[in-house]
Amino acid sequence: MFAVLLLGASQVAAQPYAYVSNSATSDVDVIDSVTQTVVTTIPVGSGAWGVAASPDGTRVYVPNPGSNNVSVIDTSTNTVTATVPVGASPYGATVSPDGAELYVTNLGSGNVSVIDTSTNTVVATVPGFANPYFLDFTPDGSRVLVADVGSNAVYAIDTGTRTIVQTYVTANNPFVVQVTPDGSKAYATSGGGSPAASIDLGTGVVTSIAGTGSNGDVAFLPDSSIAYLTNWSVGGVLLVDTGTDTVVQTIPTAANVIGASMRPDGTQLYVTNRNTGEVYIIDVATNTIVNTVAVGGSPYAMGDMFAAGAAAPPIAQGVQLDAVPGAPVIYAEEIIASPGSPVTLLNPAGDLNLSANLGYNFSIGEVRYARFECDNGLVFNAGSAATYDGTGSAGLGAINGLGGSAMHFSITANDNNVVASDRLVIEGDRQIIGTADDINCRYSLYDFPSQAAAGGSNGRVYTVSGPYIRFAASYALEVDSQGSPIADVESGIPAFAEFVVEPPTNDSLLGNLGGFSYGTRLDMGLGAQPLTPAGAQITLADLMHPDTALVFEGDFSSAADVFFSPLADCSVNIQSADDFSQVEAVFTIGSADALDHQLCFLADGATPIAAGEYTVSLDAVPAAPAVFAVTDLGPFDLGAITRNGTELQAPLAQVPGGWISRIVLTNSGPVGRAFRIEVFGETGNVISTSGPMSGVIEAEATRVIDLDGVLTGFTGAPRATVKLTVAAPSQQIQGLYQIVNPDSGSISNHVMVRPGTN
């Protein structure tokens, strides 16, 4: 049998390799069937003729008639790992479908050796032959057919009893016998001038095939419809319709073509020329030679050339459109792309592969048409390729539509094992025209090529869609905790020069203004890190210029230092601000992150600490402005410094005509205390102010403030809320709001409100 490997998930290599045995040079050339080049040459025994590969492709067996043994090749290393002695002049070999046994013909001793492949030892010998040459298993493994050139017959060995149980008289001195992939027939060729014979394995009827003769090896299409017979005498490969057993075409070649094997996907036929030392690669779609590969001397390679070769990982599925939930690949939204300047997304590791389940159970020979399409301007680059990944064998046609947002191609089932759960994978690079809109894709399967080309629902037998590419910010800035240090009015002279001693710093000179984190999306725990166009995770070094800075707005005029700390108590300084002022503090960070940082305020102890709010923002400077566009982040509220002095309010202060409106402040303490006035009006009422909006209440004294000198104009009713903040302990300050009618002498007194207490 010829179909050693199937193009499916069960295969152990990304593509099959052809193992070509060379009789004159006693070696095996390994041809990569994708690049169509010899990748290595393996020395074996003397006079190598036949070749057979294990079904899983991990072993290749080469009979050596000149040294009476079989070389065992490990395809993962392409080295001979065992040599098994057999009978005289072994030529042919075939492996059981389960890979457990190898049958070898011994031309010189007239028997067949049975080898246990797990131990590489001969476990039985089947006698009864004159000159057995080549042989093949039936697909169910129950029989081995042996071409016996000296008895004009093909014999069937029962693999259970290891005895000859049937004889097919071919009358052509059969040289080679091969069984069709579906097991219905066998074809026996004659090394002399006699015609080839077709054997119906169901009825036992033998049919001579007109127009054949002097044939060598036999190969088949995976669907068993065509047999390919080499003609070593005059050259050429004959195509025999297996339904009618008639020659329907001849592919011209030079004389002395002998070995033949079909590539497992049914797209190419490999034929050896024993005289020229070449392998002809024939495209079965056009039945023409498309390449010639030079190999060793006298390449016979009779049997099954194709095996897995070096092991390779499974096909990367990339983004699976049928996955629930969808798992799109994430790219950096900072990538600069436009319709006029599109950007190519490279796919080195297969992360950008696009895949979907086939969604349909095929019958052998059935053809359907696949379509992949994506929105928002995505383009499938010219190098994109489609791969069938399943347990069956399927051929994919040429891709139409590369360079656009939709592609379509044919799928042909070479057997009955191409099923709905198998997968199609689209490999290659992509192109985008922007990052503002995410990209979604759809896979559909159609009855006819015109329907696949047009898209839509007409003729569609299956469809699935899902997210393909998402664009996300590659970095983030967040506030982890808000600080609230309190400037202490009783810190000494001057007031508010120190903080209240309390957690988290427990230090009169240290205030924690809040915790924050800045870093990549991944490091911030926001999800997978977006990719660059090259397919690598984007870094801050890709994005940020050395001048990138974190900026903290607020009043730092009373600070001796402003710094980052990894600890909430601010006991460790890991970076001080480049500069700080009454307006802001700036930290240049370049491409570094700042994860789990605290902003710490070290007071100078001599200047009053202002009350106020503090924010954090990122001033982003691009490292590669033509490639990535970076944006500033923030400002975000980080924390606030408050003072623990006295706050007094007159919620409804009025300045009616002919009345005196005033505030009376009393300081019972031993130190003069500063105060400031703020005025708030109702919505739409704009209030004009003048006069003393701040001042000092002397020690053990009272100060009267006339509001008609403070509240000088209203666009609405003549009333307002007056708030006084006094830098003094609450118990030392009293406030009274008073309205006096000078004509009548009436006085209305209102104790000023202390928020939170009355």
Protein traits:
six-stranded mixed sheet; WD40/YVTN_repeat-like_dom_sf; seven-stranded mixed sheet; 2 helices; Methylamine Dehydrogenase, Chain H; 758 residues; N2O_reductase_N; Immunoglobulin-like; YVTN_b-propeller_repeat; signal; mainly beta; YNCE-like beta-propeller domain-containing protein
| Tally of contiguous helical segments | 2
User: Could you state the CATH homologous superfamily of the largest domain?
Assistant: YVTN repeat-like/Quinoprotein amine dehydrogenase
Number of strands: 64
> Order of strands across the biggest sheet?
45-44-54-53-47-51-50
Strands, helices and their partners?
Layout: E1 17-22, E2 27-32, E3 37-43, E4 50-53, E5 59-64, E6 69-74, E7 79-85, E8 90-95, E9 101-106, E10 111-116, E11 121-126, E12 132-137, E13 143-148, E14 153-158, E15 163-169, E16 174-179, E17 185-190, E18 197-200, E19 206-208, E20 215-220, E21 226-231, E22 237-241, E23 246-251, E24 257-262, E25 268-273, E26 278-283, E27 288-294, E28 302-303, E29 306-307, E30 319-320, E31 329-332, E32 343-345, E33 354-357, E34 367-374, E35 379-380, E36 385-389, E37 394-396, E38 406-413, E39 423-427, E40 430-432, E41 439-446, H1 449-454, E42 460-472, E43 475-482, E44 486-488, E45 498-499, E46 510-520, H2 540-543, E47 549-553, E48 559-565, E49 575-576, E50 579-580, E51 584-588, E52 594-603, E53 612-619, E54 633-643, E55 646-654, E56 660-667, E57 673-680, E58 687-689, E59 694-697, E60 701-706, E61 711-714, E62 719-726, E63 733-740, E64 747-751
Parallel strand pairs: 4-28, 30-33, 31-42, 44-54
Antiparallel strand pairs: 1-2, 1-29, 2-3, 4-5, 5-6, 6-7, 8-9, 9-10, 10-11, 12-13, 13-14, 14-15, 16-17, 17-18, 18-19, 20-21, 21-22, 22-23, 24-25, 25-26, 26-27, 32-40, 33-39, 34-38, 34-41, 35-40, 36-39, 37-38, 41-42, 43-46, 44-45, 46-52, 47-51, 47-53, 48-49, 48-52, 50-51, 53-54, 55-62, 56-60, ...
